[in-house]
């Protein structure tokens, strides 16, 4: 995952490891964290695979600069356009970079994510129905308040996610986007 994040950030231009870490922290850092201890080995792997180039500067800091190569751009765009294989964090990282995709591919992938989210909602609604029936037969159903609150959280979370996906598919609720007005 980190390698794809690095490639995506390098789509913006050449960066040092420090710049990449700073960009990760201030962008996808809400749902993905990377340490310098994982960043530099990932950069080395990308360099070894000839997806990025490495330039060492001669200044007093001996800074290394990383540049995305055409093979790295292709690798990144192929990953980005493909179906998600991971969990929610991978999906959010992909969506973060969706501006690099064509509209048809974006809509296809967002539709798949929406479908999965709707499946999660149906599953939790089924569980909620089963639990409601079981609670009728318990002497103190209130003793399960906190356990049930987590089920409620899950449903509310997926409903929010479903609405968010619908909004971004339709380009609604983008306060920074003048066309959304």
Task: Please describe what this structure looks like.
- This protein is mainly alpha-helical and 181 residues long.
- It folds into two domains: 2-96, Winged helix-like DNA-binding domain superfamily/Winged helix DNA-binding domain (Arc Repressor Mutant, subunit A, Orthogonal Bundle), CATH 1.10.10; 102-180.
- It has helices spanning 2-10, 17-26, 36-48, 70-81, 88-96, 103-135, 145-169, and strands at 15-16, 52-56, 64-68.
- It has a three-stranded antiparallel sheet.
- A hairpin with a 7-residue loop joins strand 2 and strand 3 (64-68).
- Helix 2 (17-26) crosses helix 3 and helix 6 packs antiparallel against helix 7.
- The longest helix has 33 residues, at 103-135.
- The protein is elongated.
- The two termini are 35 Å apart.
| Helix vs. strand class | mainly alpha
Task: Give me the strand/helix succession.
Answer: HEHHEEHHHH
Give the quaternary arrangement of the chains: single chain
Radius of gyration: 21 Å
State the domain count. Answer: 2
Mind telling me the CATH superfamily name of the largest domain?
Winged helix-like DNA-binding domain superfamily/Winged helix DNA-binding domain
The whole-number mean of residue pLDDT values reads 90
CATH class of the largest domain: Mainly Alpha
Largest β sheet strand count, sense and barrel closure: 3 strands, antiparallel
